[in-house]
Amino acid sequence: MIPILYDSQETQFDHNGIGALSDAVDCTVERELNGVYELELQYPVDGARFGDLAKRCQILAKPDPVTDPQPFRIYRITKPFRGTVSVYARHIAYDMMGIPASPFSAQSAADAVRGLKTYVAVDCPFDFWTDKATQATMTVAAPASIWSLLGGTQGSVLDTYGGEYDFDRYSVKLYGRLGADRGVSIRYGKNLTTLEQDENCESCYTGVYPYWLGQDGLLVQLDDKIVNAPGEYDYVRILPLDLSQEWQETPTQEQLRTRAQRYIADNQIGVPDVSLTVGFVQLEQTEEYKGMALLERVNLGDTVSVEFPKLKVSATARAVATKYKPLLDRYEEITLGKVRSNLAQTIAQQQKEVEKKPDKTWFATAMEQAGKLLMGVKGGCVRVLDTDGDGMPDTLYVADNPDPNQAVKVWRFNYEGWAASDQGYNGPFKLAATLEQGLLAEAVTAAKLTAGTIQSADGGKTFFLDLDNGILRMNSYPTKDDVQASIGLLTDSINSKVTAGQVESIISQNADSIRLKASKISWDSTYSSMSENGILTCQNANIAGIVKCGSDSGYWMKMDSNGKMSGGYKSQTYGAINCNFDGPFDGMGIESDNVVLKGKLWVYSDYPGPTWSAGQTQNVNVVSDLSIEATGDGGVAWSYTFSTLYFENGILTTVW
User: Fold this and answer.
1) What string of H, E and C letters represents the secondary structure of 131-188?
2) Which pLDDT score, from 0 to 100, does residue 631 have?
């Protein structure tokens, strides 16, 4: 493919842009799994479109034989050397380095990738997706670029959930594992041209020294201190292994040893990292293997077998880095080895344990099962049938038996559409598609469904979902008791309604109000409740405004925010009790033309009486205990007690 130049604002890449860079001398796309994704172009100064090459322009080029052409943004152009410049560009995904996200938290890998889009602080053209079902908490405590949150920093998506990224233009996909084992084998003398082997012992340890350190300083370790890795070594290199976060309570030595052994096995601490850099001619481009091209393609993330008998190099490794030549449509180099766990740099730390549920989602599992069925099928036939006997074939027939009368699993295709059945040639059909009716299926499994509207078969009467405008309506069919329910999610309100004959209950919510309507309304919470009969129970109540209660008879009582409780009949007020009494003394007063007392009235007075001037001596008698009681014959009887207060020189000295 000849690279194509576009301006800095292009996002669709569905035309020829500024133009093809047809005079390019060389072009290389370098790509690493969870690593760099860059393009380098050599271009002559007298070549076509040289004057259009500028920083932030984009170059569209293929990164490998299979993937669609990808945009790369120019970030550096060197000065001419011998009539040629070097142009360096990064994949468009690097634009996420300048897109910040606000703080948020996530409880799963799916929540995390959704959060990258939801909490973005500026416009973001990128979409995010994952097939991982890993459960763990990721916390973004401060604003950060989306690029750094993807990986390369502590607490990033990769650091928390693991996985492998695929960048496809403006789509970012996090897979549990990228690529597949396509049975590709590279052998010296067949297609292997160069080989470099690199064994890295930097992270290779011969054993671990596990320990647990409690908050009180208690140290738990093994009597023999070390748990050795399997194998024979001519050196000793021990890794201190802190397991303090593994247990809240003090572990036993046996627990410590078991956990250390599992760590050794999971992390293969005694196995050197092996990297094989292989330069080879792709099998699909050789005459001998043209018929096997589909099986022999190698893509990023694929598992490849490499054999080099003379050097005794035989390994099974994954393609973790590639260098591809778009102008030649072939790889220059593939690196097989260990997948990096970050995007920008290697983080030296012990791999944290992640609490996992099954790492594959239901959709990935379903697709895997479907793939196994298709790849493992044996037998069957494909025929072209003349169903109307006019001598012209009109139906493509794919089935498990050449004879339509004996077939069970059948696919039929013609110009009207197609249909599939597992009950014979004439159906009934479970899956079909026609131009008039579209796709018809008993069940549809999808990880992502894009639609404008979804409605029930009755024209949307029972269910209607407008995804473009965010409108949802659901209505149940009336039952035999004439009960029907409905829910409406509109652009400005949410409404639910249940009817039974002439009785109905309604909940309606708008931005500034919530309306409830029902014959009986009740609730029950920790601090308050109300029964269906309207009995309100509340531990504490702080009510502002006016509280008014009454009955159909016309009598009423109300209490206002000034501490005044009044009562009356219809529009007439009969009296009030005022806590903010406007009298000569502070206190509570009764305001009424008539005061009727029933039962006993007890009055206790602690008030010392009139105010006397300083220096004055006086004795004052006051009523300190007053009792008023109905006599039963229409009269009242009362009793009281006098107390004498003695003042000397204006000071209360004695009470008798």
Assistant:
1) CECCEEEEEECCCEEHHHHHCCCCCCHHHHHCCEEEEECCEEEEECCCCCEEEEEEEE
2) 66
Q: Are 626 and 602 in contact (CB under 8 A)?
A: yes
In the chain, where the domains are located: 4-94, 99-178+354-363, 181-337, 378-441, 453-517, 554-594, 597-655
The CA–CA distances, whole Å, from 576 to 23, 119, 553, 561 equal: 99, 57, 20, 14
* Stated pTM of the model: 0.48
pLDDT band at residue 632 under the 50/70/90 scheme: low
Q: Rounded CA gap, 344 and 151, in Å?
A: 7
Residue corresponding to tokens 């591809």: 324
| Cβ density class 264-277: b for 16+ within 10 Å, e for less | beebebbeeeebbb
C-alpha to C-alpha distance for 130 and 128, rounded to whole angstroms: 7
Whether residue 493 contacts residue 510, with contact meaning beta carbons closer than 8 Å, is answered with yes
Going by pLDDT thresholds of 50, 70 and 90, the confidence category of residue 606 is very low
d(CA 317, CA 301): 9
Half-sphere exposure of 481 (CA within 13 A, CB side): 6
Q: Label residues 136-165 b or e (16+ Cβ within 10 Å = b).
A: bebebeeebebbbbbbbbeebbbbbbbbbb
Q: Which region, left, alpha or beta, applies to residue 473 given φ > 0 means left and ψ of -120 to 50 means alpha?
A: beta
pLDDT at 576: 77
To the nearest 10°, the Cα dihedral for 428, 434, 436, 438?
90
Across the chain, what does the average pLDDT equal? 78
DSSP strand pairing (483-489 vs 503-509): unpaired
Q: Is the pLDDT of residue 283 over 60?
A: no
User: pLDDT tens for residues 328-361?
Assistant: 888 888 887 765 443 433 223 333 333 333 455 5
Q: Smallest Cα–Cα separation from 94: which of 26, 12, 4, 172?
A: 172
pLDDT digit string (tens) for 446-461? 766 777 788 877 777 7
Judged on CB neighbours under 10 Å (0-12, 13-18, 19+), 359 is: middle
Beta-bridge mates of residue 87 = 41, 77
Average pLDDT for residues 240-247, to the nearest whole number? 89
Distance CA 518, CA 500 (A): 12
Q: Which residue reads 């330069």 in tokens?
A: 279
- The CB-side HSE value for 36 (13 A sphere, CA atoms) comes to 13
C-alpha distances in angstroms, 621 versus 241, 611, 614, 642, 643? 89, 13, 19, 6, 6
Token code pair at residue 178: 């990228």
pLDDT at 655: 58
b/e for 405-431, b at 16 or more Cβ within 10 A? eebeebbbbeeebbbbbeebbeeebeb
- Map 40-107 to HEC letters: EEEEECCCCCHHHCCCCCEEEECCCCCCCCEEEEEEEECCCECCEEEEEEEEHHHHHHHCEECCEEEE
- How many C-beta neighbours within 10 Å does residue 461 have? 12
End-to-end CA distance of the chain: 115
**Cα dist from 328 to 38, 295, 331, whole Å:** 17, 21, 8
Give me the residues paired with residue 646 across strands. Answer: 619, 654
Nearest to 59 by CA among 120, 8, 105, 98: 8
Q: Of the candidates 49, 53, 51, 95, which has an alpha carbon nearest to the alpha carbon of residue 77?
A: 53
425-448 pLDDT tens trace: 888 888 889 988 888 877 777 766
CB 324 within 8 A of CB 29: yes
